[in-house]
Amino acid sequence: MTTRAVYPGSFDPVTNGHLDMIERGLNVFDHLIVAVAVNADKRCLFTVEERLDLIRRSLGDRPNVAVDTFSGLLIEYMRKRQVRVVLRGLRAISDFEYELQMALMNRRLAPEVETFFMMAGESYSYLSARIVKEIASMGGEVQGLVPPAALEALRRKFGGTR
Ligand code: ADP
Predict the structure, then answer these.
(1) Ligand 1 lined by 59 (C-beta under 6 Å)
(2) Which residue has better confidence, 42 or 72?
(3) Element (H, E) at 159
(4) 74 C-alpha vs ligand 1 centroid, how far in Å?
(5) From the CB of 54, is ligand 1 less than 6 Å away?
(6) Using CA of residue 67, residue 51, residue 49, residue 77, what is the dihedral sign?
């Protein structure tokens, strides 16, 4: 039996923290689906196509990782793909409240779906796509926080980033 999990998120853009989660997730699951949320009311810097492209380019060729998009309820997507595990990362305590709420709500909506949490790697526990965008937008250095493809894309968006 192969174990599969869906790793959902905005990935706006993909960071080294996300890549670490994927890498470590593959120590637990045979196959991962990285699912980029198409969320109409969440303003993203990158389009869905750009976000998918950055993830694909950063992951390289990996037969055990698929990259996909979803819109609407995550649990509907889980049912459609017939996957029962959601993979999520926990950074600082501030992630906990939101993640608990989401996990319990998803369980209420779909009791067959389990949320699996992994602690952020210690080098990435302070890293979020939001803070990367904030720093890059003000010309700060984000090298080492995001993969090269995302670094290049941020430089193109903000020009001033060194
Ligand atoms: P962000 O919070 O960086 O904008 P997403 O909304 O794309 O990222 O998050 C997708 C998932 O990845 C969430 O479960 C989030 O907790 C997790 N995640 C994001 N950044 C990290 C990180 N640096 N380390 C571990 N998990 C992370």
Answers:
(1) no
(2) 72
(3) none
(4) 16
(5) no
(6) positive
Rounded to the nearest angstrom, the distance between the alpha carbon of 89 and the centre of ligand 1 is 6
Instruction: Look up residue 37 and give its amino acid.
Output: A
Pocket flag, ligand 1, residue 124 (CB < 6 Å): yes
Q: Residue 17 corresponds to which tokens in the numbers above?
A: 């923290």
Averaged pLDDT for residues 35-55: 91
Please say whether the dihedral angle defined by the alpha carbons of residues 149, 6, 95 and 24, taken in this order, is positive or negative: negative
pTM assigned to the model: 0.94
Q: At 59, is the pLDDT very low, low, confident or very high (cuts 50, 70, 90)? A: very high
DSSP codes joined into one string, 84-144: -EEEEEE-SHHHHHHHHHHHHHHHHH-TT-EEEEEEPPGGGTT--HHHHHHHHHTT---BT
| CB 23 near ligand 1, within 6 Å | no
CB of residue 62 inside a 6 A radius of ligand 1: no
pLDDT for the residue numbered 2: 81
Q: Is the CB of 89 under 6 A from ligand 1?
A: yes
Average pLDDT value for residue range 129-148:
96
Q: Which tokens in the block code for residue 60?
A: 């390289």
